Amino acid sequence: MGKKIKVFVRRVSLLAVCMMFLSCSVMTVFAADEQTYGGVPASEWQKQLQDIFLESFTAVEPATLLDAVDFYREQGMDSVADIYEFWINEQPSLGEYVGFGEFTINENEGVIDAIQVIDFENEKLEFEIVTNEATKTSDFFLRQHVEVKQSLSEVMARAGMNTLMGVGTVFVVLALMIILISLFKYVNVIEKAMTQKKEDKTETPDFVEQISQRESAEQNAPAVADTELIAVIAAAIAAATGDDTDSFVVRSIKRR
After folding, report:
1. Which pTM does this prediction carry?
2. Closest alpha carbon to 58 in 119, 144, 122
3. By the 8 A CB rule, do 56 and 127 touch?
4. DSSP labels for 174-238?
5. Can you tell me the distance from the alpha carbon of 95 to that of 63, in angstroms, rounded to the nearest whole number?
């Protein structure tokens, strides 16, 4: 019973390892590296837009915003002044700030266009930065967000593509699982081979020890034979002379 439990535990452990390997493999195959724009990851562009909006708009007092409009007008930076004026005019109707929504970014001929959607209680805004890599200049825009409605054919095409990718992924994973499970039968073969090898090693006689014992017995054999011969001769002499075997000593034996 204990052996069966051990085999079961080994199989379950092997299955768990296989599942972890498959999960990591699938994630590696389908998770592409983050794309960079102008050498900067898309996530950094998104964070930059979000930080600028929070620090320059939501965290600034209305009086300061009005001063900012006048300042940028005087500096000839009308585009920035227009952004602040738009914010001042639209803020009362937006409602409470909710959070950041969808983020999109693309690059075309060295011009990077990043747009961050900002969710409010009543409507949404778009905060955009357009950066020209050649001139190293950036322009900001703040406007109302317009939902882009996709046609039915576009929706169906995207849904079909997502379904195809999902089903394909499932079939690939299932195929790999079937292959791995089919390899489980070799676990018993390997275990039996290892067990048999261990038993053969245990039952194999120690030939070195046997040879050593035999050589030792052969070396001691002449000494045992001489001792027995001396005892027989001493007994014969004692019987012939009538003396006790303790009264004489046999010191040597010469064979002819």
Report:
1. 0.47
2. 119
3. no
4. HHHHHHHHHTTHHHHHHHHHHHHHHHHHHHS--HHHHHHHHHHHHHHHHHHHHHHHHHHHHHHHH
5. 19
Count how many residues are written for the chain.
256
* pLDDT tens sequence across 11-66: 555 555 555 555 555 444 444 456 889 888 999 999 999 998 988 888 778 788 88
Instruction: Output the CA–CA distances (angstroms, integers) from residue 100 to 36, 103, 116, 134, in the order listed.
Output: 21, 8, 7, 30
Cα atoms in the 13 Å half-sphere on the side-chain side of 98: 14
- pLDDT higher than 60, residue 224: no
Q: What token pair was written down for 44?
A: 């950094």
What is the distance between the alpha carbons of residues 125 and 140, in angstroms, rounded to a whole number? 13
| DSSP per position, 101-167 | EEEEEEEETTEEEEEEEEEESS-EEEEEEEEETTTTEEEEEEEE----PPPHHHHHHHHHHHHHHHH
Tens-place pLDDT, residues 176-202: 888 877 777 777 777 777 777 766 665
Q: Which residues pair with 105 in a beta bridge?
A: 114
Tokens of 78: 């009308």
Q: How far is CA 149 from CA 43, 60, 113, 115, 123, in A?
A: 26, 34, 21, 18, 16
* Distances in whole angstroms, Cα of residue 7 to Cα of each of 111, 177, 178: 62, 19, 20
Encoded tokens for 157: 């095409």
Smallest CA-to-CA distance from 194 within 2, 16, 3 is with 3
Residue 232 identity: V
User: In angstroms, what CA-CA distances link 228 with 49, 145, 246?
Assistant: 111, 120, 16
